[in-house]
Queue: 2 jobs
Job 1
Amino acid sequence: MTTQVLADTLRSRGISPTQQRLAVYSYLLAHRTHPTADTVYQALCRDYPTMSRTTVYNTMRALFRAGLLRIVTIDAEEQHFDADTADHGHFRCTQCGELFDFDLPADTMRQCAPSGFQTDLFDVYATGLCPHCQATH
Amino acid sequence: MTTQVLADTLRSRGISPTQQRLAVYSYLLAHRTHPTADTVYQALCRDYPTMSRTTVYNTMRALFRAGLLRIVTIDAEEQHFDADTADHGHFRCTQCGELFDFDLPADTMRQCAPSGFQTDLFDVYATGLCPHCQATH
DNA sequence: AATAAAATTGTAATCATTACAAAACACCAT
DNA sequence: ATGGTGTTTTGTAATGATTACAATTTTATT
């Protein structure tokens, strides 16, 4: 995805596409590993020496408000960010700590969402052992 | 539920039923409002003047490990505790901040859980506007 | 009662996140 | 270009939930 397209995406959501915001957003799009704010910060420090943690957080909030990312709170300690806003669940392995995506059956959201409530966000979290950690057990 | 029954429940899970633990657990059973650690602490302070926040946290961890409660992380700021371990979803209203329970369609968990993973915990979170806050909008 | 083990408590530390104000930057009209 | 205005970024300091820890108290056991 070109920078131009990214910039247009941000603009279309009312976010002016600054260098820092583009850097954060494109990092998220390129790394589907559910990074934390600090992980993103550490990675971008190298290329953008003036990048600050606060900017990472500010950008995350802006992207979140614009519906461009999902904040994963399956880990109580720290938030993880995910630029994939399509329907999917998150699995956390209690052994290795890794976060995995998993598919949700079609229409899960519609079936599960409580009636009478206006549901804006929908998250499915599972916790346990990933295949690898089951094996080394 | 009598104190005796509660004590037996704890004992059967390998948790010795101290005064403090019984107080915390019975508070959770009586108040299905998904309280935070501080809410529980503030409430129990009156009757148990020596109760400490650390004890509340310790007890929550013990109950959680024993499978007697669920830790709700839908609110990134602080954890909420729920003694109802039966299958149900949690809804958070972004306006009033309240947490609501909602029913999940039967077998949701089985249908949604990713294959190949050993799923120990399963949480469904929805966020948006509760019926009341939709009305006052 | 004496001893050992476990639980509780208060305080201090940790650490992710946010508040804030100063500096840097972008945009626009003149 | 220039100056002015509003936005963005940045570093530091504050916040606040949670945990670490060591001393004290309680509980269980002999």
Job 2
Amino acid sequence: MKTYDYLLSYGVKPSVQRIAIMDYLLEHRTHPSIEDIYLALCDDIPTLSKTTVYNTLKLFVEHGAAQMLTIDERNVNYDGDVSLHAHFLCKKCNKIYDLPAAQEEERMEQFNMNGFAVQEIHQYYKGICPSCAAEEE
Amino acid sequence: MKTYDYLLSYGVKPSVQRIAIMDYLLEHRTHPSIEDIYLALCDDIPTLSKTTVYNTLKLFVEHGAAQMLTIDERNVNYDGDVSLHAHFLCKKCNKIYDLPAAQEEERMEQFNMNGFAVQEIHQYYKGICPSCAAEEE
DNA sequence: TTTAAATTTGTAATAATTACAATTAGATTT
DNA sequence: AAATCTAATTGTAATTATTACAAATTTAAA
């Protein structure tokens, strides 16, 4: 599907900037920060403003087209993959990895039964990634 | 156990400020922010500096006497309960609730087998809390 | 008591994020 | 196609959270 239509499917009105940002998110599964996205797209869209990147990501999240990760205390990261999956933050290189999700159906039921209306699930793990662990030798 | 000895048990050298901050954490299971702690202790320790609160919490986390929560994108929160448990952030009132943890032994093994050395587990849920849901009627 | 080391403090710097008004672009109407 | 309206983008300034760091204070040791 073209990104144009992909955005429409989430109820987001496409624009040059929005398409470029969503494209970046879908093609770079690196969980980029606002800064990452801004710097990467500056070349193609020289007039791009960082405020637009903020606005656009907020819009994406509101429409469910992206998810915000708060795993890294230094800044927020974004993920174009909105399916349920876990994240691993390496404390050494600060890269964020995708990991398979734990099943949550039962827990969701439990929590909802107790009156907690869950809208977002985040499974975060922190430690040392395989690549950094290998380097330690 | 006195907080003095409690800190020692984590290898943290006690001081007036450190005892006051740890006491606050242990007595207020509200997952306070730096600001919360600072404002709460200002009365008792008028000379308290916010930098000290930052330094102290960093020290506690390094020694395993507290854990840092990155559930709220606006700021970092701290928890004196370092046992494994889940957290729920209400998007309306911004309060953070404790919830029972999902078992993680199997997954830890899996991840470790794949070379991810897990040091921290965070189970975050976001949505509307029972109290705010009740108010909506 | 003197000295040394660690802790605390206050200020200044940095970095992330938000507010907001002005500009620009896109769509609609005439 | 020109004029009008609306929405999106931009740039700047303000705000907020956090960190850096040197000076002052406290605590422990000699």
